[in-house]
């Protein structure tokens, strides 16, 4: 379980095939509070389990396996050496829930259609897959590339989110361009509400 509040930015060191899986090594600046094998980390959205980890040269690294579901549903299939990722460690019971409840179970990939920059902020227009747009509501929450964001407006399959200067500074969102794909996780409460309506 996560909050969508990005803790740090990591970088893909390499991607290696392992049968039907892919193994990715990701590094980030050492913080003194390192993660362990078996821990869960949200990597620009998808929750991944650490298979190996270590530290060298002022950096900490960990390796994760990318299965068929992750490769099919997320942007992980396009990760390359140098790809920068938003990282968040799993939520502890004592942590403040400052964003919203994020599971790390990515629903699909959305596309950036437009970017409006003003006052050191950026408004992004995003297109959701048609089967997911019904779960997105104005003033509701959404996770994009592992970042908890508030939906400003919705029109059809498209919606907009506003990123403030702090969020742009501590995430990879300052690098995003029109046409980029981002991992989308809809609000878990919206999913359950829709399911309950189907059962009525």
Outline the structure in words.
The chain has helices at residues 68-73, 165-170, 188-199; strands spanning 8-18, 21-29, 40-43, 47-56, 59-66, 84-89, 108-118, 121-127, 141-144, 147-155, 158-163, 181-186. The protein folds into 2 domains: 8-89, Elongation Factor Tu (Ef-tu), domain 3; 108-199, Elongation Factor Tu (Ef-tu), domain 3, CATH 2.40.30. The protein has 200 residues and is mainly β. A 6-stranded antiparallel beta barrel has the order 1-2-5-4-3-6. Strands 7-8-11-10-9-12 form a 6-stranded antiparallel barrel. It is 12% helix and 46% strand. A hairpin with a 3-residue loop joins strand 3 (40-43) and strand 4. The chain contains 3 helices and 12 strands. The radius of gyration is 17 Å and the shape is globular.
């Amino acid at each position: 379980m996560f909050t969508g509040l990005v803790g740090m930015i990591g970088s893909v060191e390499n991607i290696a095939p392992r049968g039907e899986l892919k193994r990715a090594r990701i590094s980030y600046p050492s913080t003194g509070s390192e993660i362990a094998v078996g821990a869960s980390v949200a990597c620009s959205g998808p929750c991944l389990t650490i298979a190996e980890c270590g530290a060298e040269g002022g950096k900490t690294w960990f390796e994760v396996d990318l299965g068929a579901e992750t490769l099919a549903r997320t942007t992980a299939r396009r990760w390359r050496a140098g790809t920068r990722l938003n990282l968040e460690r799993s939520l502890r019971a004592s942590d403040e829930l400052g964003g919203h409840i994020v599971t790390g179970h990515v629903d699909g990939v959305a596309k950036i259609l437009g970017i409006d920059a003003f006052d050191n902020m950026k408004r992004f227009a995003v297109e959701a897959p048609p089967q997911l747009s019904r779960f997105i509501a104005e003033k509701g929450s959404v996770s994009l590339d592992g970042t908890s964001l508030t939906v400003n407006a919705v029109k059809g399959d498209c919606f907009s989110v506003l990123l403030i200067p702090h969020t742009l500074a501590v995430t990879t969102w300052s690098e995003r361009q029109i046409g980029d794909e981002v991992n989308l996780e809809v609000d878990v409460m919206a999913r359950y509400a829709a399911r309950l309506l189907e059962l009525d």
